[in-house]
Amino acid sequence: MLFSTLISVGALLVAEVAAHGAVTSYVIGSTTYPGYTGFSPSSSPPTIQRQWPDYNPTMTVTDPKVKCNGGTSAALNATIAAGSSVTAKWSQWTHQQGPVMVWMYKCAGEFAACDGSGKNWFKIDQMGMTAPPLTGTSWGTAVVMAKLAWTSTIPATLAPGKYLIRHELLALHQANTPQFYAECAQLIVTGSGSATPSGTALVTIPGYASQNDPGIMIDIYSSTATTYTPPGPAVWTG
Ligand SMILES: *[C@@H]1O[C@H](CO)[C@@H](O)[C@H](O)[C@H]1NC(C)=O
Ligand SMILES: [Cu+2]
Fold first, then answer.
1. Which of 60, 88, 91, 158 to pair with 193, CA 20 to 30 A apart?
2. Does residue 37 register a pLDDT over 90?
3. Ligand with minimal distance to 18 CA
4. Model confidence pLDDT, tens digit, residues 108-160
């Protein structure tokens, strides 16, 4: 019995690892930029995406790993015009309850020195739950599961410069056990805009919300809430 228990625990772990996911490519215009697909340090080709150590979710919003899934640098970058769109793609994703949030961060200098620190992250896009119930599939992450893709527009007035873009899936399918999946990529934004977010639009990551935020610590099976507010600031549209 012990032996078979161990086998089923092992099978469960394998299934759960297989159930996780990460952005595996980015499409900008007609160009597809491969994402990172191995565990760092990578022997795979250089990418615009910062390398991460594993597929495992980050379990707390205050864990430094939540920033870019532990990724700190990438060799490449992609150029994108402000006002145009970027599509992130996943090769697999299996959780349907929880928001999608897309964030950016303006690098003060070169990418190599851009560590995502300080109160400089802002949201450019998000989808929480558009209709109850909480256990249903009217969620941002359900869209990702169906399409394995998520398209966002870079605010048209955003000042040009070097930016990180961070795609975050917050999986809420385990009661009071949120799982954060976030990856970052390096973008050079072009254009003639001069808008920069300020004030309450800007937050630190980690730390954009408390672990007890109702959008993070939630039991979707017992809560009777009919609406849901993603954690963190409102989307900055420029
Ligand atoms: C962007 O990547 C290219 C290589 O694709 C590199 O030549 C260039 O220096 C990079 N730009 C920055 C600002 O890092
Ligand atoms: Cu998972």
1. 88
2. no
3. 2
4. 999 999 999 999 999 999 999 999 999 999 999 999 999 999 999 999 999 99
Q: Can you tell me which atom of ligand 1 is nearest the CA of 188?
A: 13
Say which residues have a Cβ less than 8 Å from residue 69's Cβ, sequence separation at least 6: 22, 50, 52, 53, 58, 181, 182, 183, 184
Q: Which ligand is nearest to the CA of 189?
A: 1
Task: Report whether residue 76 contacts ligand 1, using a CB cutoff of 6 Å.
Answer: yes
The answer to whether residue 4 scores a pLDDT higher than 90 is: no
Q: Which pLDDT tens digit goes with each residue over 188-230?
A: 999 999 999 999 999 999 999 999 999 999 999 999 999 999 9
For ligand 1, the distance from its centroid to the CA atom of residue 65, given in whole angstroms, is: 25
9, pLDDT greater than 70: no
Nearest CA-CA partner of 74 in 121, 103, 40:
40
Minimum-distance ligand 1 atom for the alpha carbon of 76: 2
Mutate to test the pocket of ligand 1, among 77, 79, 162 (most ligand atoms within 8 A of CB): 77
Q: Which fold has domain 22-201?
A: Coagulation Factor XIII; Chain A, domain 1 (2.70.50)
Ligand 1: does its nearest atom lie under 6 Å from the Cβ of 162? yes
Q: What is the DSSP string of 8-48?
A: HHHHHHHHHHHH---EEEEEETTEEEE---SPSSP-SPP-S
User: Is there an atom of ligand 1 within 6 Å of 77 CB?
Assistant: yes
Q: How far is ligand 2, taken at its centre, from the CA of residue 20, in Å?
A: 3
Domain ranges for the chain: 22-201
Q: Is the pLDDT of residue 55 over 90?
A: no
Q: What angle do CA 173, 174, 175 make, to 5 degrees?
A: 115
- Whose alpha carbon is nearest atom 4 of ligand 1? 76
